[in-house]
Amino acid sequence: MASDKGMRGGLGGGDIDQIRQRVLADDGRKDERGVPIDYECATVVSSLTELSNTQFCDKGAIILPRRLDGDFNGLARRMSGDVYQGKLRGELQSSWQRNVGIAPSWLGIETVRKYAAQTEMFGQELSTILADMDYLESLGRTPLLKVYSYDYDDDTVDRPHADPYTPNYETGEHYGDRYITVYNSKVTRHARNEDAEPVASLDHIRTFRLKPGAPVGTFHNGDIWRQACGENTKVKPFIHWSATEMDDGPKLILTA
Ligand SMILES: [Fe+2]
């Protein structure tokens, strides 16, 4: 499909309107605080230990729903400004990282720790992020806090797709799952496997087309989830895309 640069990524205007209308609360049942306890496309768990230990079974993602306190929009604006002015910059530590050319606005745990120690504001928000990074590092992963200053305009991530493997940024090793938290701004959308048809593979990313009327789910700011990726045929791929079709400010996303 030809890219329409007037729109966000690979989705045309008609698709976008349909998707806006279709983003219903695909959250299933909720507890008394309004936190989902059931998702069509994800198994809901209630602790970080369960998040890393639960098998995918018949769903492509495991999610720990959370609501975080703090001004993460403010922190995103601050960090994005500091990246822009050259005051904050991720370090390319391993030779593998240097080869891959990780963006300077992708921050490792040491960089975030140093930043938190020097920054007077946003102590609570940075502690929350560092606690998440500590958890992911304790699993042997390399957590990266990605500071996006603008909507990325990417034909692949803006259309329904399943992710390829997650690289270990220290060793280049491949993982069949990926951890993600979006602290502010719009969060990943997802659809059921039976509501999508495969269309193409671009750079090892399998892309899909939603069937007409397919319900679309969305996770929430602060949720932390683990999604299936790679070529694991025993697990249903997690079909998802980024919600970037409307104007976005800077955003903070943690991945590992
Ligand atoms: Fe993705």
Could you characterize what this model shows?
By secondary structure, the chain is α+β, with helices and mostly antiparallel strands. It has a single domain (34-255), classed as Sandwich (Jelly Rolls), CATH 2.60.120. It is 24% helix and 22% strand. It is built from six helices and 15 strands. The protein has a seven-stranded mixed beta sheet. The protein has a three-stranded antiparallel beta sheet with strand order 5-11-10, with no helix packed on it. Helix 5 (109-118) runs antiparallel to helix 6 (123-138). The two termini are 30 Å apart. Fe (ii) ion binds at residues 157, 161, 163, 240. Fe (ii) ion binds next to loops.
Q: Rg from C-alpha positions?
A: 18 Å
The strand line-up of the biggest sheet is: 1-2-13-8-15-4-3
- Which of globular, elongated, flat, extended, rod-shaped describes the shape? globular
CATH topological fold name: Jelly Rolls
Order of helices and strands: HEHEHHEHHEEEEEEEEEEEE
Low-confidence stretches: 1-26
| Percent helix range | 10-25%
For the report, how would you describe the main beta sheet? Answer: 7 strands, mixed
In short:
The protein has six helices and 15 strands. By secondary structure, the chain is of the alpha+beta class.
